[in-house]
Design a protein that fits this description.
The structure is a homodimer of 168-residue chains. The first copy, chain A, has helices at residues 22-48, 54-66, 72-79, 83-95, 117-138, 143-157, and strands at 99-103, 111-115. By secondary structure, chain A is mostly helical. Chain A binds a DNA duplex (30 and 30 nucleotides) through helix 4.
Chain lengths: 168, 168
Amino acid sequence: MPLQQSRLKSLTRNSAPKVPSDPIQRAWIALGRVSQAVQCHVENELKKADFPELSWYTVLWELERAGKPTRPKDLAIPLFILPYQLSRLVDRMEADGLVKRIVCKEDKRGHLLEPTPKGFALRKAMWGVYAPAMDEAMGKIEDKEALKLAELLNKLGGIEHVDCADKG
Amino acid sequence: MPLQQSRLKSLTRNSAPKVPSDPIQRAWIALGRVSQAVQCHVENELKKADFPELSWYTVLWELERAGKPTRPKDLAIPLFILPYQLSRLVDRMEADGLVKRIVCKEDKRGHLLEPTPKGFALRKAMWGVYAPAMDEAMGKIEDKEALKLAELLNKLGGIEHVDCADKG
DNA sequence: GCCGCTTTGTTGCATATGCAACATTTAGGA
DNA sequence: TCCTAAATGTTGCATATGCAACAAAGCGGC
């Protein structure tokens, strides 16, 4: 279920289609299972606490991090989702009074997104569940191992660092 | 969106809710983004080749690996999905003539799942796209790094090893 | 055997999603 | 200027999903 077009660089493809080595296959399997497991844990904890799903948090956090009203297109990239997905996500969040769409004078095609006070409050409240859940899911490894893990993953994906945490 | 109840052991919880360390947070972010990126890449490649999504492959592969007609409940665990999700997945695959449900004499509640010849053929054909896509997505790291990555991930998730590859 | 409880799997309904088509605005050239 | 192409979001429709309720069969004690 592709959430978005792959951002992997298309390869130069001067070599024949290749079967992954056994270590690569093991890493692939582990990546799929473990990421699903930890995601599920966090989502389940949020649900148990009657909070919306993580993507709502992420939208609110990105808006908060930006510190100013932000275009959907400038959110879609870091959020790694497709425009129409964000459009409907914002529909629901706006219906819940968490964000508002405000007119964008510079470009009348779009608009700017801004969290409401309720939106700020919800994000902060969700962090109270999100943070411990993340720690429960990921805390089984030492910090040094976590850094190594992040390094290896980023070597795979080559994606710029993005903060997610609360910081107050 | 939790695909299934978390399989993480519920913790003894004798410590206060904790904010994850910065390395843990970095690993969490990297895990989410990179796993999404590589999953998307593979799903997109399958779609471009007019193949069904990866979960279909995985069902067929697990059935093939089992080597005998298999109960849904015995698939749901390794597939890491909920019973009702598998039920509908099998509905669609059966409608496409890829698997069949056959009666289970020992336990008339359920049934046994078996790939059809068309199912076997599809899985093999999909591997021709799946394998190179996996390698493109994951081949940026050396085998030694891949093993380290798998090791770290499995330390996080503690999930038993499951094969996925073709092997013929 | 009989009864309640568990296991196994399915389904009705409301909601969410993917896709392709669309509307609107901007940008770029002839 | 005017026309075409690209960028930015949204939406109609068909399909997929989550959830809770359900059906049917096994299990265990009496």
